[in-house]
C-alpha cells in the first residue's frame, strides 16, 4: 500500500509542528518571567536566563501565530544552541545525562522552520511571506 497520499498533508503537519513546538517552548518563558508554572527559578533582570525567558515569552507566541517565522526561528535556534553549549554540555558529553536533549531538539526544529517556513496555516502565509 502506497502512503504517497500523506504528502498532501505535509504542509499542514509543518504548521502543526510549529504550533506545538512553540506552545511547549513558550512555557519555559512563562516559567522564567511570569513564574507560571511555579518554580524556584527567579532570574535577575538582564541576566542570561532572563534574556532567554524573554526570547521564549516573545518568540513562542510569534511562532504559534506563524508571524515572522523565519527570523524568529533562526534566533531561537541560535538561543538553543547557545543554551546547550553554555549550560548543558559542560555537565556531561551525553545529552541524556546533561539534560540537554530538549535544547538540541528545539535547536533543530527551529532551524528546520527557518528553512521550511511556517506552513500554510500561519499569518506569514496569509500575508504572502511564507
Automatic annotation (TrEMBL):
Alphabetical list of InterPro entries matching this protein: DoxX (IPR032808), DoxX-like_oxidoreductase (IPR051907)
Membrane topology: Multi-pass membrane protein
GO cellular component assignments: plasma membrane
Residue stretches in coiled coil: none
Subcellular location: Cell membrane
TM ranges: 45-65, 72-91, 103-123
Chief location category: membrane
Keywords: Cell membrane, Membrane, Transmembrane, Transmembrane helix
Family: Belongs to the DoxX family.
Protein's recorded name: DoxX family protein
Species of the source: Paracoccus alkanivorans
The organism's taxonomic lineage, starting at the top: Bacteria, Pseudomonadati, Pseudomonadota, Alphaproteobacteria, Rhodobacterales
Amino acid at each position: 500500500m502506497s502512503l504517497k497520499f500523506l504528502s498532501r498533508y505535509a504542509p499542514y503537519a509543518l504548521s502543526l509542528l510549529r504550533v506545538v513546538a512553540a506552545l511547549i517552548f513558550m512555557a519555559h518563558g512563562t516559567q522564567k518571567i511570569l513564574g507560571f508554572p511555579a518554580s524556584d527559578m527567579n532570574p535577575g533582570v538582564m541576566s542570561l536566563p532572563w534574556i532567554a525567558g524573554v526570547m521564549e515569552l516573545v518568540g513562542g507566541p510569534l511562532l504559534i501565530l506563524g508571524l515572522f517565522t523565519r527570523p524568529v526561528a533562526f534566533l531561537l535556534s541560535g538561543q538553543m544552541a547557545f543554551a546547550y553549549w553554555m549550560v548543558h554540555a559542560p555537565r556531561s558529553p551525553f545529552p541524556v545525562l546533561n539534560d540537554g536533549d530538549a535544547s538540541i531538539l528545539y535547536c533543530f526544529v527551529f532551524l528546520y522552520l527557518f528553512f521550511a517556513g511556517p506552513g500554510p496555516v500561519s499569518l506569514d502565509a496569509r500575508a504572502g511571506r511564507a
